[in-house]
Every structure is written in C-alpha cells, then in structure tokens.
Amino acid sequence: MERDTSSDPLANLITNYHELNSSIVDELPDIPSPLEFMRHVAKNRPFVVRGGARDWPACRKWNAAYLRKAMGNSTIKVANTPLGNADAIVEQEEGRLLFVEPHETDESFDDFLTYVQEDSALPQDRAQSRNVKYAQTQNGNLPTEYSALLHDVPLDISFATEALQQPPDAQNFWLGNHRSTTALHKDNYENIYIQIIGQKHFVLLPPVEVACVNEQPATRARYVPASGETGKLVIGVDGVAEAVPTPTWDPDEPSVRATAYSGLSRPLRVTLDPGDMFYLPAMWYHKVSQSNGPEGYAVAVNFWYDMSFDGGFWVGNGFLREIVEEGKKDVDYGELVTGGNEEIENSGER
Known about the structure:
Pfam families: Cupin_8
Protein name: JmjC domain-containing protein
CATH class: Mainly Beta
CATH architecture: Sandwich
Shape: globular
Oligomer: single chain
Domain JmjC: 142-320
Structural class: alpha+beta
CATH topology: Jelly Rolls
InterPro entries: Cupin_8, JmjC_dom, RmlC-like_jellyroll
C-alpha cells in the first residue's frame, strides 16, 4: 500500500528523490579523478567502473593454487551459519526478531578453501545439510589475517585517498561461495569495492528510504554449536543482550514486514564482474549475494574510508530517522504497516 504523496511529507521526500535521480547505477568510462569522485560523494550516489581494477595483480593471480601457496598454513577466522545468513534477521515462530551473528571458528586457510570448493560442487539437496562458511571478518583483515596477499592489491584507492584527504580506515578480504548472503544493512563509510573472482550482486536503497526498510530493535544473538550434535548450529541468545536497530524489510520479499512506504522504494541493482570497481556511498542500504568463479568460490576486497560527519548530511540523516521513529507512534502508521505475518508465522524461522 503506497502513501498519497500529495499529503504525506515522507512519501513526498521519497517520490521526489526518485524523480530527480537515476534509477540505475552510473557507469564511468575510466577511473575518476579526485574531483570527479568528490562530485559523487557530494551527491551521495554510487557508480561502477567496469574493469577498473583489471590490471591489479590480484585479478590475474588469485586462483586456488596461488592462494593456497601464498597463505600456507595460516589460521583465519571463519563465519559459520546453517543457511549462509550471517548478521541477519531471524524471525522465530513466536514472532520475536533476532539479529543473529555467525559462529566463528579458527581454521587453516587451506582447509577453509577446500570446504568452500567442495560445498560449491555438491548438489543443492546435499549442500543444504552442511553449514555455510565465509571469510568475512571485515575488521581490516587484509593487512593482518591475509597479509601474504597484501602486495597483490594497492595500499589504498588513490583518487579516494586524495579526495577525502585520509587513508582508508580498513582494507578487507572476502571469500565465500554462492550460498553466502549479506542481509540489508548500511555502513557509515565511503566504500570502494573491487570484485576479484566470481560475481557480487548488490541491491541498493538510498538513505532517504529509511521509512521503507522497517527498522526495528532486534535482540542480538549468535549461532552456537548444538549440544551433542556434531556440526549442527542453533541460535543462542544472551539474556542481557542489547537490542540493535536493524532493517527488517527485504526488497526481494516486498510483502513481508513492509511498511506503508515500502511500495515507494525503487531499489537499484548492480552486478560486479571480476575486475570491476564499485563506489558504495555512506549510509546506503545494501543487500549482497554472490556467484562462484570457475573454481567454486568468489573473492572481493574493499576499502572503507570514514565518512564526513560535518556539514549537513549526517545530522540530516539522523533527523530523518527520528521523524520516521516518531511516525511509528502514530495510530495511522501502525495501521498501514503490512507484514505478511500469516506467512511468517506458518514458515517458522526465516
């Protein structure tokens, strides 16, 4: 159900934004200059440069044999989930929302990569009985856990470093397969994302769509090994765990947990191929899935640059969020929230 844009300021904001901005992600012909990059930062709009990193050594070298040789017996942290849904909303049968983080294990890189490749080769019915493993520590892991690979990528993204007048806050390495997904979320970073092997598929929503995503406080939980059942993971909840505000609407399931504004959302979609460079602006909601490369895995790296908190963007975004939260207290808003609750209640955990 969509709002009448003639009488609702929030609906007007979303509608006017989409009328004034493109419905596709800009594709640049070449790597931007610092000035060109800042124009996109100022507009808070994404872009992709096809083949912008094709000459990086990583794009030429990171096949399975090379990765195994470079990493040797290095120990890495691995995210384990039963469905590939790390850091995601899970709705329990009684309707309680949990923000569930993965179970982390320390494994040798060789064992981890072997598992990911074997998992990719299995028929779907057999793979579903196995946990999904993903290297996704996202804490600046490239210079630490994966330092043996650091010389195959630049230390920074030069046009971003010059434009933003700072080095990247973190450089991250990601490796998984087609079963790993990342739920809708946002980051307060200017993100330069480079696909190395396989593909990444992004679903993007601009910050003005905060009223569409149905952010709700969800109790933090974590997958833990089940007692007495080898390999099985279950959800463990800390009795004093904090509730974190989390988007609960999925643009790929538009009728589930939708708000009165979700129908106004106009998601942008972009697929990254090997060598593509993508700019994801700060505070954009994004959902990510991936497709395997020829050896049964996907690899990417990204560079996080701290966003600017001065000027009007950060405080304006915070003000908009407060307006949305206040709107949730109105009876009309509550009545107009659509949830697909019957479907959820009958399907168990999501």
